[in-house]
């Protein structure tokens, strides 16, 4: 395949111009670099008001032909997947494109032998082992829709996702390793399946050797795989056939099953991977996300494999056996591009820098960040200690809904700016809106919106198109509304400031919680804060601020008074929180996002109704917050 990336500022600018002048030809030119059984007859059909979005209409393809088969001609013996196990004492695995192709075809035949067919939903509740990537691709091979559920989720969360998508098969494992813990995945699956009726088969990978209970519909992966060969023609898919469902949390308790389709998702993940990371032939690329999240789907599996890259999968955690593990793995496999989350960087930053320095990181060329705004301190620590001030950092802004990176610098090609995701990718038309929905020009702060579709935008919410319309296309008609606020500098660089969908109406005034948090964070003692609304007799709603401080507070009253004053000065007296509570942590998802839904319940003292907190990174903070509220 042709190199899809712009390697110079000039070719980048040229592409950017062209994408604005002639967006359809721009995307068609990129899409031509893939294998299609038959070409599209129309590049794009869209209506953001309806909403309806379709790309490469009439095109026929199978994404696995693009991720596997075509590389067999050019580089069958290149490593496709490097697997680094949880325990450094266990052997790494190196899976070539040829072997991966064979194993995917076998797994696809295993699924078929168990009744799976095009359009069926298959739940993947698996540890970060090569078989998870294989399962993803095996589903895609036969046109079954995968719905991966992060293996840290509870039985309740798993059951809700299986039921929503009405999955007929679950692929799981006896267990998975995370540091010195083993998660009993089969046991959790059993617990979930007690509340599911759609599932006909559970296929269990033997991985940890954990003892499992055996039920009527359970089958061992190794038994089933032994029965089939590795000859499996790819299902011919329409460009707009669903490829997968991935759940993401919304502002209500019910998760949203974002639906991604074959053609556009393939084109955009490959294009963005290649450009953002500036991958070159022979490089080893590592994204530390879990395949249970969108980052793993797009930038461990599909994007890298579509361009024929070597992608590393790691089953463990950054802290095991010590806080130098990431760097040990980078040195061991001579990683060239390293992509992680600010929350991981902040955790590692707390430990002696000798844990970084003792590993040879000279192979690193590019560093990436994803998932939340990266603060200045973490950015510089990453740049100084990991990148040795010699690796561009790509701060990549995107969402489960966008399928791929929309705003980021291109490593070494476009300028970086600490804490800024910088510029929209060529082909992405980002704008800033004021509260009334008018586009604002030049440098300003506002609501981020996208005014033209891109190929990997989610097409709907599984089973709830109305919700899709309401959440993303109704607040600002004619735009895709991601729910984030942003700041733009004079050069057009974007800095994502946080979610704006958390608007609280206090005494009839619309108050965004993000700017209040930013004001609180200005105080020298505050490291992080979260503001939510709670019901108030007089004002309708009032504000409750949770703040984390960087030192023990002897006299909280003084701090609280200073913080209220700070908010009053920065935003106005109306925004002064009624309550300011100093806490040691905020409830967060595993990817580091604050769970505002839970904070809202805590602020409202609705303790019986917190919902499922088992998916949190730090469920223990809930008790603490209750105790000292
Ligand atoms: C990829 C992913 C999406 C939300 C998004 C933002 C936040 C993600 C950045 C970021 C600032 C970034 N998908 N977010 N990346 N904020 N800078 N580089 O994280 O669906 O799980 O989350 O994450 O608020 O809307 S996600």
In short, what is this structure?
This protein is α/β, with parallel strands linked by helices. The strands form eight sheets. The chain has an eight-stranded mixed beta sheet with strand order 12-11-8-6-7-14-15-24, sandwiched between helices. It has a seven-stranded mixed beta sheet with strand order 5-4-17-16-18-19-20, with helices on both faces.
What distinguishing features does this structure have?
single chain, 629 residues, alpha/beta, Rossmann fold, GMP Synthetase, Chain A, domain 3, 3 domains, eight-stranded mixed β-sheet, seven-stranded mixed β-sheet, 19 helices, 32% helix, binds 5'-O-(acetylsulfamoyl)adenosine
So, CATH architecture of the largest domain?
Answer: 3-Layer(aba) Sandwich
How does the major sheet shape up?
A: 8 strands, mixed
Rg calc: 24 Å
Total helical segments: 19
Which spans of ≥5 residues are poorly predicted at pLDDT below 50? none
Shape: globular
CATH superfamily caption of the largest domain: ANL, N-terminal domain
Say how many strands there are.
31
Distance between the termini: 59 Å
Please state how the strands of the largest beta sheet are arranged side by side.
12-11-8-6-7-14-15-24
Number of spatially distinct domains: 3
How helix-rich are the residues, as a percent range?
A: 25-40%
- The secondary-structure class comes to alpha/beta
Q: Specify the CATH class of the largest domain.
A: Alpha Beta
Portion of residues in beta strands equals: 15-25%
Name every ligand kind in the structure.
5'-O-(acetylsulfamoyl)adenosine
CATH topology of the largest domain: Rossmann fold
Mean pLDDT: 94
């Amino acid at each position: 395949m042709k190199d899809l990336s712009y390697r110079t500022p000039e070719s980048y600018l040229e592409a950017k111009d062209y994408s604005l002048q002639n967006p359809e030809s721009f995307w068609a030119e990129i899409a031509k670099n893939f294998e299609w059984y038959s070409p599209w007859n129309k590049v794009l059909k869209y209506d953001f008001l309806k909403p309806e979005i379709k790309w490469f209409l009439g095109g026929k393809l199978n994404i696995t032909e693009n991720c596997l088969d075509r590389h067999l001609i050019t580089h069958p013996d290149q490593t496709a997947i490097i697997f680094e196990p949880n325990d450094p004492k266990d052997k790494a695995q190196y899976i070539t494109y040829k072997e991966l192709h064979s194993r995917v075809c076998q797994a696809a035949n295993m699924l078929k032998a168990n009744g799976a067919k095009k359009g069926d939903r298959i739940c993947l509740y698996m540890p970060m082992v090569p078989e998870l990537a294989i399962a993803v691709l095996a589903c895609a091979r036969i046109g079954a829709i995968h719905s991966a559920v992060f293996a840290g989720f509870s039985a309740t969360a798993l059951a809700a996702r299986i039921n929503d998508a009405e999955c007929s098969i679950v692929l799981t494992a006896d267990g998975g390793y995370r540091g010195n813990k083993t998660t009993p995945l089969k046991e959790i699956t059993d617990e979930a399946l007690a509340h599911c009726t759609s599932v006909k088969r559970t296929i269990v990978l033997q991985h940890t050797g954990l003892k499992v209970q055996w039920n009527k519909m359970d089958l061992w992966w190794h038994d089933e795989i032994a029965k089939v060969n590795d000859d499996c023609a790819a299902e011919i898919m329409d460009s707009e056939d669903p490829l997968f469902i991935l759940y993401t949390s919304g502002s209500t308790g019910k998760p949203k099953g974002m639906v991604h389709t074959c053609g556009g998702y393939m084109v955009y993940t490959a294009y963005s991977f290649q450009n953002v990371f500036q991958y070159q032939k022979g490089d080893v690329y590592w994204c530390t996300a879990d395949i249970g999240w969108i980052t793993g789907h797009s930038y461990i599996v599909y994007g890298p494999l579509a361009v024929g890259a070597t992608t590393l999968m790691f089953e463990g955690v950054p802290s095991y056996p010590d806080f130098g593990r990431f760097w040990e793995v980078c040195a061991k496999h001579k990683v060239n591009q390293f992509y992680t989350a600010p929350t991981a960087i902040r955790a590692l930053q707390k430990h002696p820098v000798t844990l970084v320095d003792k590993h040879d990181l000279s192979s690193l060329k590019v560093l990436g960040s994803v998932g939340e705004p990266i603060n200045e301190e973490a950015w510089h620590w990453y740049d100084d200690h990991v990148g040795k001030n010699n690796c561009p950092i790509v701060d990549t802004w995107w969402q489960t809904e966008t399928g791929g990176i929309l705003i980021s610098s291109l490593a070494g090609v476009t300028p970086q700016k600490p804490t800024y995701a910088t510029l929209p990718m060529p082909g992405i038309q980002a704008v800033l809106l004021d509260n009334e929905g008018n586009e604002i020009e030049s440098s300003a702060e506002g609501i981020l919106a996208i005014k033209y579709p891109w190929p990997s935008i989610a097409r709907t919410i599984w089973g709830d198109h109305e919700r899709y319309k309401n959440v993303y296309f109704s607040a600002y008609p004619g735009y895709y509304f991601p729910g984030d606020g942003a700041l733009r500098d004079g050069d057009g660089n974007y800095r994502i400031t946080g979610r704006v969908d958390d608007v609280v109406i206090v005494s009839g005034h619309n108050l965004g919680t993000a700017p209040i948090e930013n004001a609180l964070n200005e105080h020298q003692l505050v490291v992080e804060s979260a503001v939510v609304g709670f019901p108030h007799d007089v004002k309708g709603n009032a504000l409750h601020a949770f703040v984390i401080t960087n030192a023990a507070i002897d006299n909280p009253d003084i701090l609280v008074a200073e913080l209220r004053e700070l908010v009053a000065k920065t935003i106005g007296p109306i925004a002064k929180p009624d309550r300011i509570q100093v806490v040691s942590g905020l409830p967060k998802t595993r990817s580091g996002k604050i769970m505002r839904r839970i904070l809202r319940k805590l602020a409202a003292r609705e303790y019986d109704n917190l919902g499922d907190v088992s998916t949190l990174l730090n469920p223990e903070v809930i008790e603490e917050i209750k105790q000292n509220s």
